[in-house]
């Protein structure tokens, strides 16, 4: 059994056609604690989507579903969470945020959360 990893889904959505929706469900189904954060209120995987910036402890992974053009407003929040790693899903790659994270000892990975979960590499 894989260990659980508290994961903040940034860009969470209650729209079933969005990858962040699928990721929240898949993470929960794999036994991971999910903290959904988005710009619109709603629910995903039975959880309320936070539209504020909740101060969470023990975040293992921040998985990004916010495009690089919208990420700068989130830099301080993401980095202050002190996650072990940041996953840049396809379309969210951002060399500037990767550099800032690495300077703080945060691992970065350009990968798809859904693929990592499906192959047991999350």
Automatic annotation (TrEMBL):
<dbReference type="InterPro" id="IPR003781">
    <property type="entry name" value="CoA-bd"/>
</dbReference>
<dbReference type="InterPro" id="IPR036291">
    <property type="entry name" value="NAD(P)-bd_dom_sf"/>
</dbReference>
<dbReference type="Pfam" id="PF13380">
    <property type="entry name" value="CoA_binding_2"/>
</dbReference>
<feature type="domain" description="CoA-binding">
    <location>
        <begin position="5"/>
        <end position="116"/>
    </location>
</feature>
<protein>
    <submittedName>
        <fullName>CoA-binding protein</fullName>
    </submittedName>
</protein>
